[in-house]
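hey so u asked for the seq, here:
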Amino acid sequence: MKRVQARRIEVSMKKIITISRQYGSGGREIGAKLAAKLGIPFYDNELITRAAKESGYAEAAFHNAETKATNSLLYSIAMGMGAYGNQEIGFSHLSLDDRIYLAQSDVIRKVAEEGPCVIVGRCADHILKEMTNVVHIFVYADMEFRKDRAIQIDHLDPNKAEDEILKVDKRRTNYYNYHSGEKWGRATNYHLSINSGFVGIDNAVECILAFINCTEK
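ran it, structure tokens below
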């Protein structure tokens, strides 16, 4: 039994894992436990700290870029209608938030090039979509499961928990859709979607490990 487990972890370490998640689904906890089991780096807010240090922008600017994504139309206008996708415009004409996204994207590519790791959020699945040694995971759950976690872990007001969950998911949706041109949460954007409320947090980790090992065979 120990021999099988050791081989499983050794094989899995060849992969970079990105985790997108609904708020309250436990995606961050799953990512952290997955990285710990594999003995590889885990990146979430650490990406912001590194991107801020390398780019010279304040960490608050990175947080604000995602926080302001509350309305897809207004967000697109505020972000310059995707100017960084137009090579004729040049980076000097980009909005601050576009530059923030590019700085963060650069760091995500760097940590992926450094070796196997687990990256949570930040459009990492889209940014690394051309890499072949990456597995993209989406974690979701039913509202009751998410509300319970948000109330217990994030100490949200029980009367406002659902509204806050929907608000955060909307921000993530708009941020992702704007930068990727694709739809956040769509199954075809990921290799595996897993219902953490159905299988549980620890079992979700084991399911992902088993899935990754299957891709190595």
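The CA atoms of residues 30 and 201 lie 6 Å apart. The two ends are 19 Å apart (CA to CA).
lmk if thats what u needed
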